[in-house]
Design brief:
The complex is a heterodimer of chains A (329) and B (289). Chain A is α/β, with parallel strands linked by helices. Helices cover 37% and strands 26% of the residues of chain A. Chain A is built from twelve helices and 14 strands. Chain A has a six-stranded mixed sheet with strand order 6-7-8-3-9-10, with helices on both faces. A four-stranded antiparallel sheet of chain A has the order 2-1-4-5, with helices on one face. In chain A, strands 12-13-11-14 form a four-stranded antiparallel sheet, covered by helices on one side. Chain B starts with 19 loop residues before the first helix and ends with a helix. Classes of the chains: A alpha/beta (329), B mainly alpha (289). The complex binds adenosine-5'-diphosphate (ADP) and magnesium ion (MG).
């Protein structure tokens, strides 16, 4: 959201902690999510994202700190919190024996959606995720992407103020992931809703208004994706010339920059690459064969704050969730 | 920069009523799901019916030629009838309760646990659903009463249904309790075989409890299932024209240390055992890490 929202924060978290015996899964996080915002938690497996979400949605008791969701304390006003939130868990939670409509009806009735409204609301949310035509089909016949969409529809059915999505696209192929995001973006426009989601996909985090980067139970950075990338800096310019050594010397002499050679090309870092390239070409004095500018990615941001890439963090021993906590999809 | 803030669509924020009415409503919704699943699951329906038929007409007919059930020429199938009813109800109800393990493993339990309703109402809904399923399957066996020498007396049928329903409720609660303690689907069958099957055998569902060796008589008395089987048998045999000698064997009076336990107290025991199982199960499901 680029506009200021004057409503009270949708989620306010102060020094929230969770320890499982020896394991400190969440070691004191602070953040605020504004009403209407789409807020993302980005981090590798085992960072503590699911644990945080489960505390915010009252399924886990914090061992320290405080969290207020939609104006209610997650520890002392559980039912109030539960009425105001919608949930899409990391693992599937549909009854595959039942049809899509039966799953939704069950949910709507449990949440006390008035019977007169339930059928119209079901149509709204099923149309939103493109499943209205399949409403009477058994969920067991659905693909992974369709099940996810149905779960999103179900999470919205009782018109929650905050929608939580834990890894909404994990385990789906890239095309399906993209389509889930189309639906989510659509939803941001149609419903007056705060969205809190977790992901370990960099490209998805880009869709959020703001993201918190989480690693080993801590938030290491929090801002808009643009600001995070801008803060670490610099664009990368890759330059192929006829004479690398001469070019490097010229760059040093004319611009006071250090160029490193990599794979037969020169690489240099500058704050605003696209404005720098014309000057570079004009003043270099060495014929240039090709030039490219790369912006910093969230990968670079993650690297800067944690000292490794998110893929390395995933591969690290101990970051994997024990099999018993993993459900099936 | 100032923007107008879109107010929340107030009409959309539902406040389901709380209190007993809300709990009952939630239980009814959960129960409805149990019934939907049961009606969709043809195999479960069929399995629930084939078993009792095997007992009554294969085992019962096979043995009726060699087994003489006490004095008075009572057909072995007649004797077996209440036991088979009890066995059928027992397995159906236990499975209905234990199905919470499937709910947990396939994730649906979370969907229920995170809803703004009391957990006891979820569990009550499951018990109610299980009891309706188990009683309905028993009705089909009741329909075969005539083939087993049991009269179609409306009073008898109503009384049997009442006891069956109470037993189903209690046994489903017991199944829930088992489900709460079983870690995963793989352990369900072994637990059923080591807990439920012995309880079925020790309940006297399949043999008269008169004149048992002391250890077996004692095991029968501490076995909760006995308090489901015995009332059923009592209801049935008081409606048959038995000689006093036959009644003494077939409708054997349950005693505690020589004291005859009244029929009503047996039913109270049945309900109380169910309530205890229910309370422990609810406590286990209400725990939050
Ligand atoms: N119920 C639990 N008991 C013990 N440890 C847990 C439990 N749930 C999560 N953990 C541990 O807490 C850490 C964070 O896990 P999680 O929140 O699932 O991470 P993420 O969702 O970011 O992948 C991991 O080390 C995980 O093994
Ligand atoms: Mg997770």
């Amino acid at each position: 959201m680029d506009t200021e929202d004057r409503r009270p924060a949708a989620i306010r978290v102060e020094n929230l902690q969770k320890r499982f015996g020896e394991v400190e899964a969440v070691c004191g996080v602070d953040f605020e999510v504004r009403a209407g915002e789409t807020f993302g938690f980005l981090g590798p497996n085992g960072a503590g994202k699911s644990t945080t979400i489960n505390m915010l949605c009252t399924l886990l008791r914090p061992t320290g700190g405080r969290a207020v969701v939609a104006g209610y304390d997650v520890a002392t006003q559980r039912d109030d919190v539960r009425r105001e939130i919608g949930l899409v868990f990391q693992d599937m939670t549909l009854d595959t024996y039942l049809s899509a409509a039966q799953n939704l009806r069950f949910h709507g009735q449990l949440y006390g959606v008035p019977a007169a409204r339930l059928e119209t609301r079901m149509q709204q949310v099923l149309e939103l995720v493109g499943l209205w035509d399949r409403r009477d089909k058994d969920v067991s016949t659905f693909s992974g992407g369709m099940k996810r969409r149905l779960e999103i529809a179900r999470g919205l059915l009782h018109s929650p103020r905050v929608l939580f999505l834990d890894e909404p696209t994990v385990g789906l192929d890239p095309q399906t992931r993209a389509s889930i995001w189309e639906y989510l973006n659509e939803l941001r426009h149609q419903e007056d809703l705060t969205i809190f989601l977790t992901t370990h996909y960099m490209d998805e985090a880009e869709n959020c208004d703001r993201i918190a980067i989480m690693d080993a139970g801590r938030i290491v950075a929090l801002d808009t994706p643009q600001a995070l990338k801008a803060a670490i800096g610099t664009d990368r310019i890759r330059l192929e010339t006829d004479d690398g050594a001469a070019a490097a010397a010229a760059i040093n002499r004319n611009f006071g920059l250090e160029a490193t050679s990599a794979g037969g090309a020169l690489v240099l870092q500058v704050p605003d690459g696209e404005r720098f390239v014309p000057k570079l070409l004009a003043d270099l004095g060495v014929p240039v064969r090709s030039v490219s500018v790369t912006r910093p990615t969230l990968d670079d941001v993650f690297m800067t704050y944690t000292g490794r890439t998110i893929r390395d963090a995933e591969a690290a021993p101990g970051s994997e969730i024990p099999a018993m906590f993993r459900g099936r999809r | 920069m100032t923007t107008t803030v879109t107010p929340l669509p107030v009409a959309d924020v539902h406040r389901p009523p709380s209190g007993l009415a809300a709990d009952l409503r939630a239980a009814r919704i959960v129960c409805h799901r149990e019934l939907l699943r049961w009606l969709k699951d043809r195999r479960r329906l069929a399995a629930g019916l084939v078993q009792p038929l095997l007992w009554l007409f294969v085992l019962g007919s096979g043995l009726s030629r060699v087994v003489n059930v006490g004095p008075g020429n009572v057909d072995f199938r007649t004797f077996l009838f209440p036991g088979v009813l009890a066995t059928s109800v027992m397995f159906t109800a236990v499975f209905a309760g234990v199905s919470v393990v499937w709910d947990r493993e396939f994730g649906f339990l979370r969907e229920m646990l995170v809803a703004p309703i009391r957990r006891s109402s979820i569990m009550a809904g499951k018990c109610l659903g299980g009891a309706i399923v188990a009683t309905s399957q028993a009705v089909v066996i009741l329909a075969l009463a005539g083939l087993c020498g049991v009269p179609y007396s409306p009073v008898l049928m109503l009384e049997l249904l009442g006891v069956l329903f109470l037993a189903s409720l209690s046994i489903t609660a017991f199944g829930l309790l088992l489900g709460a303690r079983v870690a995963n689907i793989q352990s369900v069958m072994p637990v059923i075989q080591t807990v439920i099957t012995p309880m079925m055998f020790l309940s006297g569902a399949l043999y008269p409890t008169a004149g048992l060796p002391t250890w077996l008589a004692l095991a029968t008395k501490v076995n909760p299932v006995t308090y489901a089987v015995n009332p059923m048998r009592h209801v049935l045999f008081t409606h048959l024209d038995l000689t006093p000698a036959a009644a003494k064997v077939l409708d054997h009076q349950l005693t505690w240390g020589g004291w005859p336990v009244p029929f009503a107290l047996q039913l109270v025991m049945l309900a109380a055992l169910g309530l205890v199982a229910f309370a422990i199960a609810v406590r286990r499901f209400s725990k939050t890490d």
